[in-house]
């Protein structure tokens, strides 16, 4: 696979795990490849923030700066291909060529939900399983947190526990179990309805399920206040 292919697959979010290792290594060791990457990255930003005519003008400015400062090493053929690609993107739109970068959308919008239901203090000498579960959660020992939540007797289970166990599964990147538990929160009309809808949308984005993500975001915007503005921004990016 050529360097050009690696760059294409990176910006179209289609690198395999093996290709990503090669890509990261080249960024660290190959100055020419890094320069090509930075050029493409600048080009992407220009495309997303300007109309076609402004974008083409900025591209020319990039080329003049590159020639004047000698920051990048490109041959004539590469510049011609990049310029042609820029014109095509101007006409057809960036996403239609490179596609939506779902991993970046997920990473830029995901934050771990804080423990807001169980206060842990140094003076608290109780040794309940629930306390141990939330200590594990706050210290990001997610598997221990899950095991502790599961060990709580059914008679002592509380409605918010499914939500936090789902969060722990997210921390382990076990999206299947996280999705199941967030959906359970919605089905049982438990606490954290809006929050669960938000995280279900993010899981759909991570899974590259655009239609499902849009459905959850629209439900969030219509029925809840949690992250409503962020949901609107994310919906615009997906559309």
Automatic annotation (TrEMBL):
- Transmembrane feature ranges: 74-94
Known Gene3D superfamilies for this protein?
Tetratricopeptide repeat domain
Name the domain of life this protein comes from.
Bacteria
Q: Does the keyword Membrane apply?
A: yes
Q: Does the keyword Transmembrane helix apply?
A: yes
Please give one Pfam family short name.
TPR_6
Q: Which UniProt keywords apply?
A: Membrane, Transmembrane, Transmembrane helix
Its recorded name reads Tetratricopeptide repeat protein
């Amino acid at each position: 696979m050529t360097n050009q292919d690696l760059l294409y697959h990176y910006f179209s979010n289609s690198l395999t795990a093996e290709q990503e290792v090669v890509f990261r290594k080249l960024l660290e060791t190959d100055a020419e490849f890094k320069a090509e990457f930075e050029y493409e990255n600048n080009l992407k930003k220009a495309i997303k923030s300007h109309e076609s005519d402004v974008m083409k003008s900025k591209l020319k400015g990039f080329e003049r700066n590159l020639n004047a400062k000698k920051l990048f090493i490109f041959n004539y053929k590469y510049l011609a291909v990049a310029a042609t690609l820029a014109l095509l993107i101007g006409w057809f739109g960036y996403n239609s060529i490179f596609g939506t970068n779902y991993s970046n959308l997920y990473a830029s919008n995901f934050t771990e939900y804080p423990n807001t239901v169980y206060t842990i203090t140094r003076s608290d000498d109780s040794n309940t399983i629930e306390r141990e579960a939330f200590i594990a959660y706050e210290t990001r020992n997610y598997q221990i947190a899950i095991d502790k939540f599961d060990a709580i007797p059914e008679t002592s289970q509380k409605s918010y526990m499914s939500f936090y166990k789902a969060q722990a599964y997210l921390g382990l990147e076990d999206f299947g179990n996280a999705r199941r538990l967030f959906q359970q929160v919605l089905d049982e009309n438990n606490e954290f309805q809006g929050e669960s809808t938000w995280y279900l949308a993010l899981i759909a984005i991570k899974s590259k399920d655009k239609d499902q993500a849009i459905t959850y975001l629209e439900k969030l915007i219509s029925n809840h206040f949690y992250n409503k503005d962020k949901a609107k921004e994310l919906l615009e990016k997906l559309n």
